[in-house]
Every structure is written in C-alpha cells, then in structure tokens.
Known about the structure:
Blueprint: E1 6-8, E2 13-14, E3 25-26, E4 29-33, E5 36-39, H1 40-56, H2 64-87, H3 94-107, H4 112-121, H5 126-150, H6 155-163, H7 166-173
Antiparallel strand pairs: 1-4, 2-3, 4-5
Amino acid sequence: DSDEEIAAAPEPVENSGSTEGKNIPVDRIVVLVEEGLITQRELDQRLAQIKRSLIAKQVSMPSEESLVSQVLDNLIQEQIQKQLATQLGIRIDDFSLDREMNTLAKSNGMSLLDFREQIIAEGLDYAAFREDVRLQLAIKQLRKRQVDNQVKVTDREVEDLIAKGNFKSLATSL
C-alpha cells in the first residue's frame, strides 16, 4: 500500500486582528495528506456540489455523516493521486484542457460558452471547475500509466497466440 500520511487537523483558528471589531474565520486544515492538505472550504465546496448534484438527479440524500465521510475519502484519494501525478511529471497543458472542456460541452449538447454559463448558473466557479477537470485528466493519465506498466505481453505469448490460431478471433472481437 501507499505510505500516505494522514493526520487530524487542529480546531479552526480565528483571526486575532479585527476588521470593524469582528473576528474573521480563517480556513482550517481538515486533513494533511503527505505534502498536501484538504481545507474545510474545499470539503464544504465539494459537499455542496455533491448535494446539488444529488438533488438535481432526484437521488435520496445519504446521512450527513456518511456523505462527509465519502466526500472526504474521495478528496484524500484525489490529493494522493494529484501528488503522484506531479511526482511523475504528468501535466495537463491548456490545449488539452480546452479540448476536454469542448468535449464536455458537446456531450451536454451545448457550446463552450453555454456550458460555461451553465456551470456559473449552478453556483460553481468556472476557473475552479476547469482546474478540477485538469486534475481529473491528470488522474486519468496516471491510471492509464499505472495500467500500462502492469500489462506485460511477452513475445512468447504473442507467438503462442498466433500459433494457436486465436489471433484471428481476438482481432475480430476488437
């Protein structure tokens, strides 16, 4: 397994300076994940996004405790994968991101401009949405690389497949 280091976060910190006599809450760290962290704001934003999605799909809402646990687990997994992708030099350039955004728009039957407006109308920050898509593309490349590294076909296996005549049936099934 991975050597991920996960630690509980300290309690929220209030700003000791005041603005117009009020304390301003400072975002707090919920979980430390190796060199990264997950903040309360990130958790709250993802929870709100998931809740909106469940409501829009008319799916029954799990308990708050269950939902928080699932979303936090997902954020931790993403953070670990993001760090690994960075370590392996996986980077999604703007051209690839733009192409994926266009694909997403078309798959939703919209132009990119309409898609952007829809995202904003749903209360999401478009720049943050783009960065999330960039992250998902990086994770997809990471997973592909991991699978490619695990799949090893020897010359002998190819020769055996051809010799058995299974090659033609394999080619027609693809």
